[in-house]
Design a protein that fits this description.
about 220 residues, about 35% helix
Length: about 220
């Protein structure tokens, strides 16, 4: 039909800041990006309380909607059907979460999160939107202002859980680790805080992410 591929991007500040910082340079005509990302907001339903490396509590901001509200609103904001729902998620699960009154490491349990993402996949499919999971990248060393020193182990457990879910659900993945930790350099494109893409390279990273997403279809 010649129309550009409509990709709704869901997730927290990692995709939100990427879209914001790349917007000025983004001139592609083969895709339209719909921003469904919100800073510090994973969108998980009843997200358990988190804590950072200093044991300070992490709560979503007041404007953070659960995905059951935000995803339909994002899809409805576009004037034609959305083709792909790109889930740039998983960062929020790397910190300890309070599950059944116990602080729980992600390598102990991600089942609660996988169940939530499984529901998101089902919702997108019911809406005739193809779900694609962007596997989260390892953090750079500067990320230790939030995540504990064992963040590589934590992220490995989260990634493994999401890979397993993608296999179970037979959906495609794209790997942010290849974009943000190429050659095991997890600093080069995230020099500021080890988590968010540096504004100077946001345009390049978004281009590459879009190319991977289109190739995955």
């Amino acid at each position: 039909d010649g129309e550009p591929t409509a990709i709704a991007v869901f997730g927290d500040s990692v995709p939100a800041w990427l879209l914001r910082d790349a917007a000025r340079a983004f001139a592609r005509r083969d895709v339209v990006l719909i921003n469904g990302a919100n800073e510090a907001c994973d969108g998980a339903v009843a997200l358990p309380l988190g804590r950072d490396r200093r044991e300070a509590e992490l709560r979503p901001p007041a404007d953070c909607l659960e995905w059951t509200e935000s995803y339909p609103a994002t899809l409805a904001s576009f004037d034609r059907p959305v083709d792909v729902g790109l889930l740039v998620i998983g960062q929020a699960v790397t910190v300890d979460r309070l599950i059944a009154d116990r602080w729980t490491h992600p390598c102990e349990s991600t089942g609660w999160y996988v169940a939530d993402v499984r529901e998101r996949i089902a919702y997108l499919r019911d809406a005739d939107v193809e779900p694609v999971i962007a596997l989260p990248a390892r953090f750079g060393e500067r990320a230790t202002f939030v995540v504990p020193d064992d963040h590589d182990e934590r992220m490995s457990c989260v990634r493994t859980a999401l890979v397993g879910l993608a296999f179970e659900q037979q959906i495609q993945t794209v790997d942010l680790d290849g974009l943000l930790c190429a050659g095991d350099d997890c600093e080069g494109r995230r020099r500021h805080d080890g988590i968010h893409v540096d504004p100077e390279v946001a345009g390049d990273v978004l281009d590459e992410l879009v190319d991977l997403t289109l190739a995955a279809r």
